[in-house]
Design a protein that fits this description.
Helices cover 46% and strands 11% of the residues. A two-stranded antiparallel ribbon has the order 1-2. The longest helix is centred in the N-terminal third of the chain and has 15 residues. It is globular.
Length: 184
């Protein structure tokens, strides 16, 4: 049922949101010259997939977890995208393709070995990663791998339709702060 909802909502989001997606893409062209950001992430069954987001950092920024990135790397437009969570919209394509769900554990980078081990120990990779979930609305990010994996496992153990809509609602109304970026 959740996959069907993911498919319906991602299709609607991509179609109805296309004017907004196009506008953000064009603004991103002026901001960085390369508005989309593609990054390899660990998905269901630890299979790698390419996540797509709107770029919020300068193009030459190293590909590391956000909590390890330098705050100076975020552009002015990038700050707006992050604050409003609009940088996540292109991931609707990943949801549409079945690589992600709207709700699930945030997909990590292949080099985040501690988090991968913690999630593997708790069978978190049995499910699709998501755009949002319990950890995100509670402000838990990838800087605390064990807590994040525990929270992901807790969410997955009880995830039903009510929780699915609750996490989406809480994210859409501004709960959670996203991954922290280290201060310079």
């Amino acid at each position: 049922m959740i996959r069907l909802l993911d498919l319906v909502f991602s299709t609607l989001g991509l179609l109805l949101g296309s004017p907004l997606l196009l506008a953000l893409y064009l603004l991103g062209l002026f901001d960085t010259g390369s508005p989309l950001f593609f990054q390899s992430r660990v998905g269901r069954h630890q299979t790698l997939f390419t996540l797509v987001k709107f770029r919020t950092m300068h193009r030459e920024t190293p590909s590391v977890g956000t909590h390890l990135a330098d705050a100076a790397a975020v552009t002015r437009f990038g700050h707006l995208l992050r604050r409003t969570k609009l940088d996540e919209l292109p991931q609707l394509w990943n949801v549409f393709k079945g690589e992600m769900s709207l709700v699930g554990p945030r997909p990590c980078l292949p080099n985040q070995e501690e988090l991968i081990a913690e999630r593997a120990a708790r069978d978190v990779f049995a499910e699709r990663p998501g755009i949002t979930g319990l950890a995100q609305i509670q402000g838990i990010d990838m800087s605390t791998p064990k807590l994040l994996a525990e929270t992901d496992a807790k969410m997955l153990a009880s995830l039903g339709l009510q929780d699915y809509f609750f996490y989406i609602w809480k994210t859409a109304t501004g709960s959670g702060s996203g991954d922290r970026i280290r201060s310079t």
